[in-house]
Design goal:
Chain lengths: ~180, ~190
């Protein structure tokens, strides 16, 4: 589901603040830079408010954010809806006992980790990141939460790159995005 | 300077925040008692208190930028920025920011690291708070201050949830005021 289709004027405001940086991190990639969105207090607030409006009162007790840009959007949402914030991190960053989930990159593999005990069985969780591309990272995030018995209610991203079909990699879990970038 | 010495003496929120921080011994290496704020983030009330204390302090100080140090500064900075109507500027490890950047190197125990900021993110003259979860030697925060001063910004204060003993008693870092909520927790009877 995409907020974009509602043609909400707030969405247009948010989309206009995202900067596209060509050929980063390598030739051919049009990088969607959200740092310019963060420089516009109103647009950043609108972004958070749209997610909060959707998730408040839905009995969500966990917002899991993917390192590092998920750490920018996740905590404000968690604070507003009364949920915990759980950082999902690259290997060896979390100090306590962790569970790990490997995922495939274009070349090679990477790994996402979560603290043991952060999320309890039966908790209703959101996964938040700035952007969904192929869906590999979000998929790993969902796996981590499901392995500890949590229910992933939805994945929430500011931006979707629909041509990469990440939505189809989410094992049927719903995806909510504010902006599509083609 | 610690919040308790600066208007918040006896504030029960500070105890709640301190209690919510977990100490992990010998991480990332032997002898280090790591102050883990992820448990604070799991405690909605204590996390909210943390943000509220910083917001109450900065909302009337005409602050236009909150600069957060990657990655744990990202967990606290944006909420403060949103509440006071300021921009949030991420200060990142090398090669993460996609646009043109300025870089500042700083010393680690062994070797050096580097912090980067987007060119144009902070215009000259803007009043800035730098935020991170914890200050130890102050090396990273000093690099952050230098980055911001190089573009002509005014660093008003550095804000951290936890301040390690190296900075205890120091009210300033590189001449900038330092505002800290709590001291490190200790573990009873540990090693």
């Amino acid at each position: 589901m995409s907020a974009y289709r509602d043609k909400d004027p707030l969405i247009h405001g948010i989309q206009s603040k995202i900067r596209v940086v060509p050929n980063f991190p390598k030739p051919g990639i049009m990088f969607q830079d959200i740092t310019t969105l963060l420089l516009d207090p109103k647009a950043f607030k609108d972004t958070i408010d749209l997610f909060v409006e959707r998730y408040k009162g839905k009995n969500i007790s966990v917002v899991a954010g993917i390192e590092a840009r998920g750490f920018i959007f996740g905590p404000p949402i968690a604070l507003e809806i009364g949920a915990k914030f759980v950082p999902l991190r690259k290997p060896k960053k979390l100090p306590g006992k962790v569970i790990s989930e490997e995922y495939i990159l274009e070349y090679g593999k990477d790994c996402l980790e979560m603290h043991v005990g952060a999320v309890e069985p039966g908790e209703r969780a959101l996964v938040v990141d700035d952007l969904i591309a192929t869906g590999g990272t979000l998929c790993a995030a969902m796996q981590l939460l499901e392995r500890v018995g949590a229910e992933v209610v939805e994945c929430a991203c500011v931006i979707e790159l629909p041509d990469l079909k990440g939505r189809e990699r989410l094992n049927g879990k719903p995806l909510y995005v504010l902006v599509e970038s083609r | 300077m610690f919040a308790a010495e600066n208007g918040l003496k006896g504030d029960p929120r500070l105890q709640a925040i301190s209690d919510a921080i977990r100490v992990v011994p010998h991480f990332p290496k032997q002898g280090i008692m790591f102050q883990d704020i992820t448990t604070l983030l799991l405690d909605h009330k204590a996390f909210k208190h943390t943000i509220d204390i910083f917001v109450d302090r900065y909302r009337d100080m005409d602050i236009s930028v909150i600069a957060g140090v990657e990655a744990r500064g990202f967990m606290f900075g944006p909420s403060i920025a949103l509440a006071i109507g300021a921009k949030f500027v991420p200060l990142r490890k090398p090669k993460k920011l996609p646009g043109e950047v300025i870089s500042e190197a700083y010393e680690l125990e062994y070797g050096t690291d580097c912090l980067e900021m987007h060119v144009g993110a902070v215009p000259a003259g803007e009043r800035v708070i730098v935020i991170d979860d914890l200050v130890a030697t102050g090396g990273t925060l000093s690099a952050a201050i230098r980055l911001l001063e190089r573009v002509g910004a005014q660093v008003v204060e550095c804000a951290c949830v936890i301040g390690l003993p190296e900075v205890k008693g120091q009210r300033r870092l590189n001449g900038k005021p330092l505002y800290i909520l709590v001291e490190p927790r200790e573990i009873d009877g540990c090693c």
